[in-house]
Amino acid sequence: MQKAFFLLFVLFTTHCFSQKTDFKHINFAKADRIASTIKSKRLFNLNKLTLDLTKNLDTDIEKVRAIYKWICINIASDFKLYSKNERKRKKYKKDSIKLAEWNSELKRDLFSKLLKRKKTICTGYAYLFKAMCDVVDIESKMVYGFGRTVDVTEFDPNYPNHTWNAFKINNKWYLCDATWAAGISYPDENRFIFKYNDGYFLTEPELFIKNHFPIQKEFSLLGDKMPTFQEFIEMPLLYGGAYTYLNKYIAPKKMYHSLQKGETFNFNYVFKKEIDPKNLKLVFVSGVSEKTYNPFISQKNDTTILRYTFNKAGYFDVHLYYKEDIIATYIFEIKKDNQN
Fold it and tell me: What confidence tier does 87 reach under pLDDT thresholds 50, 70, 90?
């Protein structure tokens, strides 16, 4: 048994990096065009839909791309069902029988809405991706774990809250998250806006782990570089903007920081080539006060370094923006000179 697990672990972690660059010779325009033109009101004939999406594509990665892109631009997130599931899980947390009953009811409701109305939650997105990959004999997995979002920053290690996918091309595993790539939910308004984010497809494992922590270690694709669960829950909060604009996240490693007044702090990132650093800004929020600052920016090789000196004591939520898109959030406690 241990030998089998070791072989599986090696299978997942060997040659796991450079996800997008493996396919830099592939133009996804054809796959994206097919995904945008094929329509289906319901999902009762999944085989036909999948074959229509993939029959004129030459490579497996293009087929995966067409499937993934179609899901992202056609399947809406059902935040109402997601919220109901969270309430039920908390309510029945200590009642295993009722929790099991709810999970069975959720499963029926989830797949009914997915098939009839093309609305679902993360489990439905991941299931659909795997089912469609199965049709064209491309190996994929549903990955269960923990997702960090602005709405979810506290975790019970016994209750994973998110599902995404890993898929294998040419004997190598890759990552994707159709749920978060599809668009933006507005819980207070009970509505969903389609807004495709390409950064969640073929995402580098070192960036993906910042808000995707799998239950099974091998699905991180990081091998022994995978952080602990405690390290994960202490990480900064990254948004969709991080996946749009970053190639790599370097520092800071944690969300919470305690500094002395007058201390200078560095933020380090590797941005995509088309990003103009002049459009980066730090937005400080303290109570009802909000101020925007332009940090000192320097370059070292491919790394962009943002420096800011904290000259005012207090507690601050510090948000990194590129233009009007939020990338990350940190929390700073700035102490006066005489404070320990």
Answer: low
Break the chain into its structural domains and give their ranges.
Answer: 26-235, 250-335
What confidence category does residue 91 fall into, taking pLDDT thresholds of 50, 70 and 90?
A: low
Q: Is the pLDDT of residue 279 over 50?
A: yes
* Structural domain 26-235, CATH architecture: Roll (3.10)
- Residue by residue, DSSP assigns 202-267 as S--HHHHTTTEEESSGGGGS-GGGPPPHHHHHTSPEE-HHHHHHEEEEEE---SEEEEETT-EEEE
pTM of the model: 0.87
CB atoms within 10 A of CB 339: 11
Gap between the Cα atoms of 287 and 309, Å rounded:
20
Question: Which CATH code fits 250-335?
Answer: 2.60.40.10
3-state secondary structure of 127: helix
- pLDDT > 70: what percent of the chain? 83
Q: Are 107 and 85 in contact (CB under 8 A)?
A: no
| Active site residues per annotation | 122, 162, 177
* Mean of pLDDT values over 250-263: 96
Residue that is written with structure tokens 């993906």 in the block: 208
Asked whether the beta carbons of 221 and 166 are under 8 A apart, the reply is: yes
